[in-house]
Each structure stands twice: as structure tokens, then as C-alpha cells.
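Schema walk-through. Below, the input block comes first and the output block second. Nothing else is stored per chain. Lengths vary across the set, and this one has 173 residues.
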Amino acid sequence: MNRILKTSSIVFLTIFIFTLTINKTQLINIEEFYSDFYVIWYALLSNTLIFLKISVGDLLYILFPLFIIIYFFKIERRRDRFYFIIKIPIIVYCLFYWSWGFNYNKKSEFELLKTNEYSIEDLYSTTEHYIKKTNDLHMKISKSKEKKVESNLMFTEIKNECIKSMKKSDWIF
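--- output ---
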């Protein structure tokens, strides 16, 4: 039993030090490292928790402190209580960063898009280009400037079509 506790403590400390290192240093590129993990983690959480009718965060806010209080008073040795008091904030810290906290370190979409400077004339000509394309498409669909373009597709179908066309496009946002 003592060997299992030592092994779990080593694993626990390793995860904590790894999380702290990722968060506080630039040793690991968070964009590449965390993005793949977060997609899997988000899909797992959203697919398993979608059926609950109550917020999982609210449940955690209520049950987690109760669990801590009950478990704390069940511990008999003072040394184990001390370790428990130390471990709880570390667990909360690691869970926070692995669940969504690393996203705070990511570059914003604006920073990723900012490649080079452009002038007002460039913006104007680009806007004019897309206005012309939009108006041409409107004329193709409705055959009249005044007629409203209507679709009999549902919102989810339109959304799926947009996603498909964005995936086909070679222009990356």
C-alpha cells in the first residue's frame, strides 16, 4: 500500500510540474501542443455531458467543496490531512489548465491574421470586389435587385454547407 502511495505521489507531482512548466515558460509551443489535446478533450466532455439538464459547473461548485470537507474529516493522521490540503489546490490548478486554461496563452485570431500592413486603398478595393461579387450572385439567384433571396434550407443545413465550403476553400482565416 505504501508503494502505491509513493508511486501516485510521484505521478501527481510530475503532472503538476509539467503543467506548471507549460504554463509559466515558453519551452513548449502551446499552439501546437495543446490544440490537438483540447479538441479531443472538448469533444469528450461535450458528448458525455450534453444529456445533463443542469450545468456541470454548478454541480462541481456544490459537490466538490462538500466532498473536500467530508473527506478531510475522515482522514485520521495529521500528516495525511496536511498532504490533502496541499493536493487540493494543485488538483484544481491542473484541472483548470488542462480543461481550458491553456487557451489563455494562445495567440488571438487577430494576432495570427496580422501578417503585413495594408493601406486604406487596399481595404477599399477588397471591399468593392466582394460587394460586386455579392451583388452578382444576388442577381443570378433572384433576377431582380429588389427581390429578396430566400432559401428553403434549414439553419443547420446552411451551417453545414458553409462549413463544407470553408473546408474546400484554400483561403485560410
